[in-house]
Amino acid sequence: MNIVKHLRDRDTARTSAQLCKLMNLHPVTLREWTRAGRISAHRMGREWRYDPAKVADWLDEREVGS
Q1: Is the N or C terminus of the chain more exposed, i.e. has fewer CB atoms within 10 Å?
Q2: What is the mean pLDDT of residues 46-59?
Q3: Rounded CA separation 53/10 (Å)
Q4: Residue 66 pLDDT > 80, yes or no?
Q5: The whole model's pTM is what?
Q6: How far is CA 29 from CA 5, 8, 50, 60, in A?
Q7: Does residue 63 have a pLDDT over 80?
Q8: Distance from CA of residue 8 to its chain's centroid?
Q9: Contact 33, 39 (CB under 8 A)
Q10: What domains sit in the chain, N to C, each tagged with a CATH number?
Q11: Do 38 and 48 touch, CB atoms closer than 8 A?
Q12: What is the DSSP string of the chain?
């Protein structure tokens, strides 16, 4: 399944671990992108949470910019 479609079909926030698994990313890479503001996220306690719609939009923008 296409990652963007998968994310758009979800309405609950994804954890770092879930997003890394889905996008085949190393956790350090996702953490660096988050801290640099490259990808939208918010903190819930000690955990970062990612809005699936915002991540899908971010992926779409990166594909268009390629």
Answers
A1: C
A2: 92
A3: 8
A4: no
A5: 0.82
A6: 22, 22, 14, 19
A7: no
A8: 12
A9: yes
A10: 3-65 (1.10.10)
A11: no
A12: --HHHHHHT--SPEEHHHHHHHHT--HHHHHHHHHTTSS--EEETTEEEE-HHHHHHHHHHHHHH-
Q: Which two tokens stand for residue 54?
A: 């915002």
Per the CB < 8 A criterion, the answer to whether 53 and 13 are in contact is no
Q: Which two tokens stand for residue 26?
A: 């190393």
The amino acid at residue 31 is R
The pLDDT of 25-50, averaged and rounded, is 94
> CB-based contacts of 42: which residues, under 8 Å, 6+ apart?
13, 48, 49, 51
